[in-house]
Amino acid sequence: MALAVKLSENLVNEAKRFGEVYSRSTPKQLEYWIRIGKIAEENPDLSYHFIKDILLAKTEVQDNEVTPYSFD
């Protein structure tokens, strides 16, 4: 369900700049920040980089882009 939300012009402009760098639309950049922020609030001991790596790993598993690790 889509919902209209008022955001500050500064936040939207910053999201636009970051979105251009990471090839995301402004709304997708805002969604990304919200997702990261929610995870960080729920897990205050995790760093941003660790959260990002977990999300990347989760996507790789979903896309079957992983190989089993062998303890030889």
What is this structure's SSE topology?
Blueprint (H helix, E strand, L loop, with lengths): L8 H13 L4 H17 L5 H15 L10
Helix pairs in contact: 1-2
Describe the structure.
α1 packs across α2 (26-42). The protein has helices spanning 9-21, 26-42, 48-62. The chain is mainly α. The protein has one domain.
Give short descriptive properties of this protein.
about 70 residues; mainly alpha
Structural class call reads: mainly alpha
The domain count comes to 1
Which regions are unreliable across 5 or more consecutive residues at pLDDT < 50? none
Give a quick account of the main beta sheet: strands, pairing sense, barrel closure.
none
Q: How would you sum up the global shape?
A: elongated
Beta-strand share of residues: under 5%
Number of helices: 3
Order of helices and strands: HHH
Relative helix content: 55-70%
How many beta strands in the DSSP annotation? 0
Q: Please tell me the overall pLDDT.
A: 94
* Rg (C-alpha, Å): 16 Å
Distance between the termini: 49 Å
